[in-house]
Amino acid sequence: MNTSTDRIERQILLKAPRARVWRALADAESFGDWFGVALKGKRFIAGEYTQGNITYPGYEHLVFEALVESVKPEHYLAFRWHPYAIDPDADYSKEPTTLVEFTLEEASDGTLLRVVESGFDRIPVERRSEAYRMNSGGWTEQMENIEKYVAAH
Q: Alpha-carbon distance 5 to 120, whole Å?
């Protein structure tokens, strides 16, 4: 396994208490607001799927679907999904998923949020590099999105 292409890691210091950051992450509707997916009336429950239409311009025809792996209040949220699954005619169900992990830690100036997405080396080779590249840029943008969301809420 090549760790430089198997995982994406991002972190950001959010100038907000852990409880507020946790609500932005673990409340599905709040998550959807900053992440760009309509998860109205949804909850993140370990062992269950959650899904909703993507609201990001140009991707509205796609459905976000994730299997929630773990929810540890105010500390850890993890889900599995098919990375950069943007072809509406493709059947991704037989492909391995990547694991997305959010970890919260107290920091002197707020809350440190870390996100790690791992498992890219298991994605079919014909999609792997594009999925990695797109999700790498996507997580950079999502860290900015949650920072703005937490500051406004």
A: 7
